[in-house]
């Protein structure tokens, strides 16, 4: 059964990648069915999370219209999504020190489920896990996860001292709960990595709104 309530859970939306498969540029600003990927992610997460921050590198002014704090990677060299997770944990430590949990999600997943946060919290309680990770079609999505804010120091050490870059390699150190979602009528974790994916996302969005 879903939890009737869950702890206050800020979220970091990860937009710090280089979008190489999209030809570069700001992938989250690509539009599907008249709205940007990022706007759709915000709409999905805002009702579930009590605060949102955007992890993005470069000039933050290009995201000013979204009204979110923009936080850059705290580690140089575009080391991947773990740096974005750390950026979120650093931001929460500074601005929401009362929070014990943080959600991370990529800015290119426009169809995130409305029960994402509550089900991840329920799973980590049921399985006595430290981290809860979303999954669909038998495949986990390690950047769509619920993190304890207490991992801030461990994650910084893993990035800077241990040179860990893969999310799975870091999370394997801790008890994890994997939470499966159905993929009908569409995969809620569909992500738009290529121009072909954007076209498919447009079809899903138009079908979902009809």
UniProtKB/TrEMBL annotation:
Any GO CC annotation of this UniProt entry: cytoplasm
NCBIfam families, per database record: molyb_mobA
Protein's job: Transfers a GMP moiety from GTP to Mo-molybdopterin (Mo-MPT) cofactor (Moco or molybdenum cofactor) to form Mo-molybdopterin guanine dinucleotide (Mo-MGD) cofactor.
Protein name, as recorded: Molybdenum cofactor guanylyltransferase
Keyword Transferase annotated: yes
GO biological process: bis(molybdopterin guanine dinucleotide)molybdenum biosynthetic process
Annotated GO MF terms: GTP binding; metal ion binding; molybdenum cofactor guanylyltransferase activity
Binding site for Mg(2+): 108
Cellular compartment(s): Cytoplasm
Lineage start: Bacteria, Pseudomonadati, Pseudomonadota, Alphaproteobacteria, Hyphomicrobiales
InterPro entries hit by this protein: MobA-like_NTP_Trfase (IPR025877), Molybde_CF_guanTrfase (IPR013482), Nucleotide-diphossugar_trans (IPR029044)
Reactions that this protein is recorded to catalyse: Mo-molybdopterin + GTP + H(+) = Mo-molybdopterin guanine dinucleotide + diphosphate
EC numbers: 2.7.7.77
Main location: cytoplasm
The protein's required cofactors: Mg(2+)
Pfam families referenced in this protein's UniProt entry, alphabetically: NTP_transf_3 (PF12804)
The MobA-like NTP transferase domain, residue ranges: 11-169
Quaternary state and interactors: Monomer.
Binding site for GTP: 14-16, 27, 55, 73, 108
Keywords assigned by UniProt, alphabetized: Cytoplasm, GTP-binding, Magnesium, Metal-binding, Molybdenum cofactor biosynthesis, Nucleotide-binding, Nucleotidyltransferase, Transferase
SUPFAM superfamilies (alphabetical): Nucleotide-diphospho-sugar transferases
Family, as annotated: Belongs to the MobA family.
Domain notes from UniProt: The N-terminal domain determines nucleotide recognition and specific binding, while the C-terminal domain determines the specific binding to the target protein.
């Amino acid at each position: 059964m879903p939890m009737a309530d869950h702890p206050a859970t800020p979220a970091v939306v990860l937009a710090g990648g280089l979008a190489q498969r999209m030809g570069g540029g700001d992938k989250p600003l690509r539009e599907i069915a008249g709205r940007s990927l990022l706007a759709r992610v915000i709409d999905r997460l805002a009702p579930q999370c009590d605060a949102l921050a955007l992890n993005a590198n470069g000039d933050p002014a290009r995201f000013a219209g979204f009204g979110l704090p923009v936080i850059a990677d705290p580690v140089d060299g575009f080391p991947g999504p773990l740096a974005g997770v750390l950026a979120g944990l650093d931001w929460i430590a500074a601005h929401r020190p009362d929070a014990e949990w943080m959600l991370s999600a990529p800015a290119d997943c426009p169809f995130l489920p409305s029960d994402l946060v509550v089900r991840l919290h329920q799973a980590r309680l049921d399985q006595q896990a430290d981290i809860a990770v979303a999954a669909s079609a038998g495949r986990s999505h390690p950047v769509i996860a619920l993190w304890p804010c207490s991992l801030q120091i461990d994650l910084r050490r893993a990035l800077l001292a241990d040179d860990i870059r893969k999310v799975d390699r870091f999370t394997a150190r801790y008890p994890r709960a994997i939470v499966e979602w159905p993929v009908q009528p569409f995969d809620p974790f569909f992500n738009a990595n290529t121009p072909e994916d954007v076209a498919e996302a447009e079809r899903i969005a138009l079908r979902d709104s009809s």
